[in-house]
């Protein structure tokens, strides 16, 4: 492991959350290209050594996370419970936000055809969506977007990895099958 890799590992471990690559470069007093190369080396080191942690990329940020294979043991050790599954309504709202962001609650409700205030509040509380400004219209409604926690929860490093939506004819709605 190089000195830069060790420095980045220490920063990421201490931070606990995702850190932008630019901030890592500034903190390590290194060029972004050097940091990118060192992060690649660090990720390879974790993969080759069979480490219980892995380096996860989320858009322009990186974070140290537990390798999924070790999650049950970590959960038992920290006495944390698996978060409850998201309801169909929560998944619908997350889909609207993820594919159309930034959006307002009114836009979500217009697409869904039902009041979504409780669902939006729950997703905000879980940290899967967050406010990201205000729409420049009377009333200045809050704009919402997905978070890094959303990316981690769905196992993607960027929104571009989400599957594409099917094409619908005007007035046609996508019908989701409910599963038990």
Going across the major beta sheet, what is the strand order?
Answer: 1-3-2
Distance between the termini: 47 Å
- So what's the overall shape? globular
How would you sum up the major sheet? Answer: 3 strands, antiparallel
Derived from helix and strand composition plus strand pairing, the structural class reads: alpha+beta
Could you give the count of β-strands?
5
Order of helices and strands: HEHHEEHHHHEEH
Detail the poorly predicted runs: none
Measured as a percent range, the helix fraction is: 40-55%
Average pLDDT across residues?
86
- The helix count comes to 8
Strand content: 5-15%
* Rg over alpha carbons: 19 Å
Task: Outline the structure in words.
It is a single chain. With 180 residues, the chain is α+β, with helices and mostly antiparallel strands. It contains eight helices and five strands; from the N terminus they run H-E-H-H-E-E-H-H-H-H-E-E-H. The protein has helices spanning 3-15, 21-28, 32-49, 71-78, 88-100, 105-112, 117-126, 148-153; strands spanning 19-20, 53-58, 61-66, 129-134, 142-146. It is globular.
SSE topology sketch:
Elements: H1 3-15, E1 19-20, H2 21-28, H3 32-49, E2 53-58, E3 61-66, H4 71-78, H5 88-100, H6 105-112, H7 117-126, E4 129-134, E5 142-146, H8 148-153
Antiparallel strand pairs: 1-3, 2-3, 4-5
Helix pairs in contact: 1-3, 2-3, 5-7
């Amino acid at each position: 492991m190089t000195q830069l890799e060790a420095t980045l590992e220490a920063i990421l471990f201490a931070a606990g959350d995702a850190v932008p690559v630019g901030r890592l470069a500034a903190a390590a007093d290194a060029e972004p290209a050097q940091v990118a190369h060192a992060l690649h080396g660090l990720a390879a080191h974790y993969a080759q050594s069979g480490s219980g942690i892995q380096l996860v990329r989320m858009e322009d940020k990186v974070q140290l996370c537990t390798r999924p294979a070790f999650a049950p043991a970590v959960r038992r050790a920290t006495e944390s419970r698996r978060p409850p599954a998201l309801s169909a309504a929560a998944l619908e709202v997350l889909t609207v936000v993820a594919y159309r962001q930034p959006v307002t609650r009114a836009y979500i409700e217009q697409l869904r055809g039902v009041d979504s205030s409780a669902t939006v509040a729950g997703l905000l509380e879980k940290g899967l969506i967050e406010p990201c400004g205000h729409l420049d219209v009377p009333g200045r409604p809050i704009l919402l977007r997905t978070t890094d926690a959303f990316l981690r929860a769905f196992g993607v490093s960027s929104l571009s990895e989400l599957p594409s939506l099917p094409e619908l004819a005007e007035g046609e709605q996508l019908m989701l099958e409910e599963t038990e």
